[in-house]
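Page 42, continued from yesterday. The earlier attempt failed because a stray header line got pasted into the input along with the sequence. Redoing it now with the clean sequence only.
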Amino acid sequence: LGYCSGSPYGSAAWRISSVDSSQKNQKLIVSMKAYISIAIALLIVACKPNPHTPPSPSTIQVDSVYTTAKIEYHGDFYESGHQVYAFDLLSDGLHFDSAGYIVGTGCNLCLSDVFAPTDSISHLPAGIYHMDSTAQDMSFLRGLYFESNGITGSYLLEIKESQIQRITLFTAGEMTIDYTDGDTIMAFTLYTADSIRYNASYIGYSQL
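This time it went through. Structure tokens are written below.
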């Protein structure tokens, strides 16, 4: 993860945009709903007593600080009674161009499905969010690859000169959101399938 670096304090605030669900690609909606159904079924079959339990800690640990963030609000996208958000975090060296594309060299942490309570409209509550397959309040989906639609869930893109060099999927972990003195503070502890632990953080200046 050589491109993941940055100042411990980000000057960039969250850019919030609302996305009309009716304009989403129908194929993506079907695939994502299928993903949630399959993932929940697999979780039940596994019969794990605590879906939030992370893998055993690894001797390998990666730390990253993000300085730019963008969030999208999708409303009750899956018609499940939960508000759905997606966001991108960028490290130093990356930025959004005028067309909304990510350019430069650095790391892009992506969470495509973050679930919040029904009354959390255009706002993510403070607290701890767990990565799992339940699609319940205060949770976010693990990373998964679809041959038809690519990657979804939680993953990391390493980018060099605007080209993706490596993709890492996360399968367990948590994130914490806190609002202190006008700052938005986020902390991540994420794990890959082979138990590599990835720590990340972001400090901005507006509420999510």
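Notes: The longest helix spans residues 26-46.
Reminder to self: strip header lines before submitting.
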